[in-house]
Design goal:
The complex is a heterodimer of chains A (116) and B (112). Chain A contains no helices and eleven strands. Chain A is mainly β and 116 residues long. Chain A is globular, with a radius of gyration of 13 Å. In chain B, the strands form two sheets. In chain B, strands 2, 4, 5, 9, 10 and 11 form a six-stranded mixed sheet that branches. A five-stranded antiparallel sheet of chain B has the order 1-3-8-7-6, with no helix packed on it. The chains are: A mainly beta (116), B mainly beta (112). Chains A and B meet through strand 4, strand 5, strand 9 and strand 10 of A and strand 5 and strand 10 of B.
């Protein structure tokens, strides 16, 4: 149990276009989901906290108008990278916390975005 | 603030024990975690320890926590080539309720 999926697993897009990444909790409900990004050979950096039914909370330095987050249901959060640029190329990973308040975060497999 | 540090690289021979170290700065950390990441993949939770514990053992994995020194270690006994990966320690201040702060990751290379 406790599986988190991400779609797509990888995507290549042209500069200026927008890309939507989905994060789904497959067998549990998640009130809170997190979005991280990871540059090559670096650690994960938190981008934003996504709460079902409310606005996302963004970390300092993350542009909320560029990285749109929608957490419309207890099993789905989406991250849309708008007007993508090559510097947005990264590995985006989401995680989800069970609504029961478990200590554990369940991570998705990640989405590799390449902007050409 | 929160800061988690790890050494970048560790190389061991197959069958030896591996010890990966981590230091953190926030004394209010509630849970401390160890995750494994294989190339191109997401994170796999290996184990965790609550801040009021000193040690936790789970099969080949032993976690030691020195709260006074804010030092966490992960020992992998009988290391196998399949253990080659990047290992991240992470801390959570309010258990399960907020995002994790990750260390920089330690790349473990297991030589056959």
């Amino acid at each position: 149990g406790a599986v988190v999926s991400q779609h797509p697993s990888w995507v290549i897009c042209k500069s200026g276009t927008s890309v939507k990444i989905e994060c789904r909790s497959l067998d549990f409900q998640a009130t809170t989901m997190f979005w991280y990004r990871q540059f090559p050979k670096q650690s994960l950096m938190l981008m934003a906290t996504s709460n079902e039914g409310s606005k996302a909370t963004y970390e300092q330095g993350v542009e909320k108008d560029k990285f749109l987050i929608n957490h419309a249901s207890l099993t789905l959060s989406t991250l849309t990278v708008t007007s993508a640029h090559p510097e947005d190329s990264s590995f985006y990973i989401c995680s989800a916390i069970h609504t029961s308040g478990s200590y554990e975060q369940y991570f998705g497999p990640g989405t590799r975005l390449t902007v050409t | 603030g929160e800061d988690v540090e790890q050494s970048l690289f560790l190389s061991v021979r197959e069958g030896d024990s591996s010890v990966i170290n981590c230091t953190y700065t926030d004394s209010s950390s509630t849970y401390l975690y160890w995750y494994k990441q294989e190339p191109g993949a997401g994170l796999q939770l290996l184990t965790y320890i609550f801040s009021n514990m000193d040690m936790k053992q789970d099969q080949r994995l032993t976690v030691l926590l020195n709260k006074k020194d804010k030092h966490l270690s992960l020992r992998i006994a009988d290391t196998q080539t399949g253990d080659s990966a990047i290992y991240f320690c992470a801390e959570s201040i309010k258990a399960g309720r907020r995002a994790l702060t990750f260390g920089s990751g330690t790349r473990l290379q297991v030589q056959p």
